[in-house]
Amino acid sequence: MFAGHFGLAAIVRGKVPQLPLWSLLISTQLMDILFFPLLLIGVESMEVIEESGLTVIHAYYSHSLVGAIILSVLAGLISKRFWGSKGGVIIGILTFSHWLLDVIVHLQDMPILAGNMLNLPLLGLSLWSIPKASIALESLLVLVGAIFYFSYSLTLKKYNLKQRIMQGGFIAVILISSLVFSI
Questions:
Q1: pLDDT in tens, the chain (183 residues)
Q2: What crossing angle do the helices spanning 2-15 and 131-153 adopt, rounded to 10°?
Q3: What is the pTM (predicted TM-score) of this model?
Q4: Which candidate, 106, 112, 127, 105, places its Cα nearest to that of 60?
């Protein structure tokens, strides 16, 4: 769902142009950004299931429901200082959207409580086990994001039409290309 998260950021950028694109992209990936240092120090892990080739992450802190809520609130509060209350709320929601999209596609590997305390059932609707459906959802997010961002770029009056088309087209191509890395 890597590209799908970026697609959602582009959708929001098309509707909320006062927030920098980089802030939206980072907020949609903040949980994964936190996951990698935790993976490197051995707090979280990942494994490939040989029969299916799917990767299961054991991200019991960065991808827990409680962890996602805490990270989203922190991201929102920090963003509020730079972009006001509305910007903070949008960044907080975008940060949490990562968890919502992941719970749709992930296998049952997402805990409710950080560290999987209390050993509660792990969450995940396992859309990854239906590759065509997973690819369709992610492609839809990327395509809609590309369209929204391209449409937004056409409204930028400080650039001539050719520059606006090039900027929107460039971001659209990057978004669509990100599907290659995600699938």
A1: 788 999 999 999 989 989 999 999 999 999 999 999 999 999 999 888 788 777 778 899 999 999 999 999 999 999 999 999 999 999 999 999 999 999 999 989 899 999 999 999 999 999 988 989 999 999 999 999 989 988 888 888 777 888 888 888 888 888 888 777 765
A2: 30
A3: 0.87
A4: 112
